[in-house]
Amino acid sequence: MLSGIKVLELAGLGPVTMCGLLLKDYGASVSRILNPNAPFVDHLLSPGKPVVALDLKNSSDRRTLLDLCKSADVLLDPYRPMCLDRLGFPPEVLHKANKRLILTRISGYGQPQENEEIDYYLRPGHDINYLAESGLLWLFTGETSGRPVPPANIIADIAGGAFPAAIGILLALYEREKTGVGKIVDVGIADGVSYMSTYFLASCQVSDQKASNTPFSLMHWSTLAHQCSSFVDGGAPFYRTYETKDKKYVAVGALEPQFYANLLKALGLTERYAPQLDRAAWPRIAAILAGIFASETRHYWCQETDLVRCACLSPVYSPAEAIERRPRHLYRHLNFSLSPLVGATRDEGAFTIRIPRPCPLLSNFPTD
């Protein structure tokens, strides 16, 4: 179906890699741009993708990437906002090289729009953080007093990131057939997760609102939770939830070594005492962290700048809280947006597509 479409995938984790796999499986030619000096590369979702080794901190390699973009249809950007711009590839440069290029940016919270608070968008995060802020993570426990346990199948990255990106690319390709011009596809995973939860949050509004504050079992999740033993299923002390003093929860997603080091530093610990990759030490480390987080409220921990901005810490919101704060949390009120590739030009009419919006609150009047 996508035969003849050339995709350049800047190597990253989860959502970008899965998006590239989706496009490849439907016929696109997907080449992976890989930093040969990267400390860790995940190849699990990259079968059949040829690799081009480029270090984008090297000027010669940056010129090579720009040359590749001249004949490409899609560029997949896995970096946090403005990172690709700082490397020398802002939208206007890419558009000058190839006006038909579709720049697809997948990040935790999307790209900041003009006059918006940029710190919100620059926060690091992982699947557990996006689920926590959406209200979905609250559901993954079978006991009223039990802590939420993240699902191991990386829901947010895939359903909130990779799939919206793939849909956005298809829409941009369709639009390009009419205009001859590429677009920016801006995907915020946190927005995508909230959009994915539309049915459940709408159900909470239809039923008793108070019930949406009570966790309930999904697929006997409380039983499965006892089997936690891996990096992403709640078994690792640096990727799990912790109860706070006010009987609420925070989620920690400090997978990468630098984020784990930031977590320990902010809490007054050292890795010598809490080695990240020593599985035998995980229960002891988790107990230490649990004691620390239980000493203060959720609000207190979420006001700690070093934890939120540098160690992947997020509040775990109940569905009721997620519903209440939805207009504030979803800055853009969508899970992906398409805009003209020329960054300085934004047409809010027919040329800019914003799709889709989350389910609105229930009303007695169809226009509300």
Describe this structure as you would to a colleague.
The structure is a single chain. The strands form two sheets. An eight-stranded mixed β-sheet has the order 3-2-1-4-5-6-10-11, with helices on both faces. Strands 7-8-9 form a three-stranded antiparallel β-sheet, with helices on both faces. The model is unreliable at 208-212, 214-227, 327-337 and 340-368 (pLDDT under 50). A hairpin with a 5-residue loop joins strand 7 (239-243) and strand 8 (249-253). The longest helix has 25 residues, at 155-179. The protein contains 15 helices and eleven strands. With 368 residues, the protein is an alpha/beta fold.
CATH superfamily membership of the domain at 6-121 and 154-193 and 331-354: Crotonobetainyl-coa:carnitine coa-transferase, domain 1
The overall pLDDT average reads 79
Q: Which CATH-level-2 architecture of the domain at 6-121 and 154-193 and 331-354?
A: 3-Layer(aba) Sandwich
For the sheet with most strands, the description reads: 8 strands, mixed
What is the CATH first-level class name of the domain at 6-121 and 154-193 and 331-354? Alpha Beta
Q: Tell me, briefly, the overall form.
A: globular
Tally of DSSP β-strands:
11
| Tally of helical runs | 15
Low-pLDDT sequence parts: 208-212, 214-227, 327-337, 340-368
Protein name: Alpha-methylacyl-CoA racemase
GO molecular function: catalytic activity
Family: Belongs to the CoA-transferase III family.
InterPro entries: CoA-transferase_III, CoA-Trfase_fam_III, CoA-Trfase_III_dom3_sf, CoA-Trfase_III_dom_1_sf
